[in-house]
Amino acid sequence: MLNLRKPAFIFNLVGILLFFVGLYMLTEDPRNGTYLMYVGLGMAVIYWIWSVIDVLTADDLKPYQTNKHVKQSNDRNKIAG
Fold first, then answer.
1. For a 10 Å CB count at each end of the chain, is N or C smaller?
2. Is 2 inside a domain boundary?
């Protein structure tokens, strides 16, 4: 999961910036401000989905995604019962 450029993070920062610029623009120009807010919000949602897919497809995280807690609870049941 080594990605030195972090394009998803930069994409999200642009989305957050657009959201807050749109929020500010609501006072001056409500139509364009609302449009910018929705664009920024849409970019943030895309970033969230992109990050979830990135984590699910990362091969170097697989050893940490085991069912250790299930095995430990089964071992406790065998000892207690």
1. C
2. no
Do residues 19 and 44 lie in contact, with contact meaning Cβ atoms separated by under 8 Å?
yes
Q: Is residue 56 part of a domain?
A: yes
Structural domain includes residue 33: yes
CA distances to 10, 20, 25, 40 from 54, rounded to whole Å, are 15, 26, 33, 21
| Rounded Cα–Cα distance for residues 47 and 40 (Å) | 10
Which has more confidence, 50 or 70? 50
Q: Look up residue 36 and give its two tokens.
A: 């910018």
* CB contact at 8 A, 11 and 19: no
Task: Report if residue 52 sits inside a domain.
Answer: yes
Cα four-point dihedral sign 72, 74, 77, 81:
negative
Q: How many domains is the chain built from?
A: 1
